[in-house]
């Protein structure tokens, strides 16, 4: 029998039940949080700042497909009729860096033989292989009557090659690797869907020195808009674009440009091919067939066409070529105007710190020392009309 409570012998506080309850409310939420984190990781939806806590030692050294900056710019979502795509989760400013990504796989450009690709695949980590095989493909390069089970739990070397080759064909980007034209696979970029002409809002540029791809916003993008690039040269008529995309990528384009009403689509089809026509006329200057002033007039036509169509992807290059014409003809005033315009648009397309942009700035700062300044007939060729 317990002693009777007195002033010298106070009663024991009844703590058994509260201690048990405290333990319950500490452990159960922790278990729930751990399960939720595991679930997010399995579904590729965990923010990078958390995913790092739930990765093995091998995983921590891998190329991270869920870097923290992604979650502040875009999210990967399922889109009806498109599979996965990227949606802006906040407003993105023109020229802003959206994706910065190293390739998980590089290969020589052209037809990739099995004997060449299999060693490359064997050097991938398990997570890199998973990332590669999660991407889409259109066709498999099978032999006649050959059947391949690409859904097998353990792929045969032959099946792995065919699947990887099909994925590379569909998703790889041309890059300059150690001075040679090569192919690179970038899983996050591969999630970007296609749009034609003025319908896409991103431009990508390979950074040779950094060994990575940079993707920039060509225009202001509103929260909730899909992030889009162009898979092909989309400055061609609608019928040609759709046929090219169906044959190469296996889908029928329904982007805003391909979905224009018939009358507007016809007008677009008339305008877009003029880029090639005007540039062909401009290129006659390099052969000496037209004057510098005539060459600049063709560039002005191209520039006006970018306004009429909304296609601004190559403005930096066109302004750069106009600046070169003005420089060669000794029109320093016009050359500086075109160079400033080229720097602005090259910075938007490739980044203000890219080699292309900084080279243009160097040319502007040292124009009077340009080796070809006034090397042809001196004339006022004219600057940009904006």
UniProtKB/TrEMBL annotation:
Keywords: Membrane, Transmembrane, Transmembrane helix
Any one Pfam family match given in the protein's UniProt record, by short name: SET
Name of the protein in its database record: SET domain-containing protein
Organism the protein comes from: Marasmius oreades (fairy-ring Marasmius)
Bilayer-crossing regions: 20-40
Top-level taxon of the source organism: Eukaryota
Lineage of origin: Eukaryota, Fungi, Dikarya, Basidiomycota, Agaricomycotina
InterPro entries, per database record: SET_dom, SET_dom_sf, SET_domain_protein
Domain SET, residue spans: 65-232
